[in-house]
Amino acid sequence: MLLHLSTWQEVEAYLQQSRGIILPIGSTEQHGPTGLIGTDAICAEAIARGVGEATQAIVSPTINVGMALHHTAFPGTISLRPSTLILLIKDYVTCLTKAGFTKFYFINGHGGNIATLKAAFSETYAHLEDLQIVNAEKVQCQVANWFMCGSVYKLAKELYGNQEGSHATPSEVALTQYVYPEAIKQAPLSTEVGTGHKIYSAANFRQHYPDGRMGSNPALATPEHGKQFYDLAVKELSNGYLEFVNAE
Length: 248
Ligand SMILES: [Zn+2]
Description:
Order of helices and strands: HEHEHEHEHHHH
Bound molecules: zinc ion
Largest sheet: 4 strands, parallel
Distance between the termini: 24 Å
Radius of gyration: 18 Å
Strand content: 5-15%
Helix content: 40-55%
Strand order of the largest sheet: 2-1-3-4
């Protein structure tokens, strides 16, 4: 059930049976010469909708822009500052808590969001308690990173070994190829790729990772692999969601 394709009465009826909601969150950032700018949001959205169907859970509109400041030296990247993303999460959760939701399951497609999401959860719990919103003490937020699912990680290792890398990875590119086969890109990839550098400023990032990849070889991606990653992530995160929503 997709929130934006529902009416308020349908949401009210849903709340009679469940207090859980799935929130896909991604990023709008460069993904190397063959990866789509929307990769992280596309992956999170597709998997979140799959989990929503499998578990009968409501799925919120995708949070398409995340924390990607270190990618902003590449054109097309849009980033929120961590402080802005914290406010955004706080506003989402506050509105939905007022409506009666208490279990917030963020399906995340971008490693750069994790630290800020965890900070946002702490800010949100305190904010809800300060406002003495009904059910504030019952609110629980969790971040589930599809790319860190055990089954996904294992398949990526089997298919790509150390050419999986850590950004613009063949696994995430494969998943976007499965979801949007009409947008598959071809571009030459140099055999040399930046790897192992720490992340500092956007300019520093581009200097160390000149084509935007981090140790990855996305030329290995195929839409068929993407379907395998999709199925594994939906299965594992459906279990994760049900466990989360049914726990005290
Ligand atoms: Zn990504």
